[in-house]
From TrEMBL:
This is Uncharacterized membrane protein. The keyword DNA damage does not apply. Pfam families: SpoIIM. The chain crosses the membrane at residues 21-41, 61-80, 87-114, 126-151, 163-183. Keywords: Membrane, Transmembrane, Transmembrane helix. The lineage of its organism: Archaea, Thermoproteota, Thermoprotei, Acidilobales, Caldisphaeraceae. It comes from the Archaea. The keyword Transmembrane helix applies.
């Protein structure tokens, strides 16, 4: 069997991995909702200032990719940033806490960005996130859930058995980056024009 096949078997056979993966997807959403509901209070805090600086960086990258040749580099930039996060998350699985924090912070960033985009109708906001988010969020949380294997397999087997999960995540992130770069905005614009 190949490394990807082994990773798929691991996802099928390791109940604790699946449960952790689902729990982390829920954590991502819960943190995002909490940030949205407490947006005004958070804006006054240190956390709000940090999230605002992160959002500012994201906006600068997005604005630099208008029309022209740089537009076609956007999926590579998005993919590179997301794969970097996935690798850091995978490597930090020994800590158990860092992968959970990475999921929570990313959920918080999504929750932080949404109120700023509020002038758009909720349906448009939905389509600005969902086309690529349905692939990207499970991909990042899959790599984040690897830490649970530390308990049952130990550190060496955890990393050996989960390299395929990192590869699956990278493939999913490549697809999500393409969708985010070329389809998400177009779909949201079509929805906005229909409203």
């Amino acid at each position: 069997m190949g490394i990807i096949d082994d990773a798929v078997d691991l996802m099928i056979n390791e109940k604790s991995l699946r449960r952790t993966w689902i729990t982390l997807i829920a954590l991502f959403g819960i943190v995002g909702i909490i940030i949205i509901l407490s947006y005004n209070a958070i804006m006054q805090s240190f956390v709000g200032q940090y999230l605002q600086s992160q959002e500012s960086g994201i906006r600068q990258i997005a604005q630099s990719f208008g029309l022209g040749n740089s537009y076609y580099l956007l999926p590579f930039i998005i993919f590179g940033n997301n794969v970097k996060t996935a690798i850091i998350t995978w490597v930090s699985s020994l800590t158990i806490v860092i992968p959970i924090l990475i999921v929570a912070v990313n959920g918080g960033l999504v929750g932080f960005v949404l109120p700023g985009a509020y002038p758009n109708p909720p349906l448009v906001l939905f389509y600005l996130l969902v086309p690529h988010g349905v692939i990207e969020i499970p991909s990042v949380t899959l790599v984040s859930s690897v830490f649970i294997l530390l308990i049952s397999k130990g550190p060496v087997k955890m990393y050996k058995n989960s390299i395929g999960l990192l590869l699956i995540s990278a493939i999913m992130l490549a697809v999500a980056a393409f969708i985010e770069s070329f389809l998400t905005r177009t779909i949201a614009e079509i929805v906005a024009s229909m409203l």
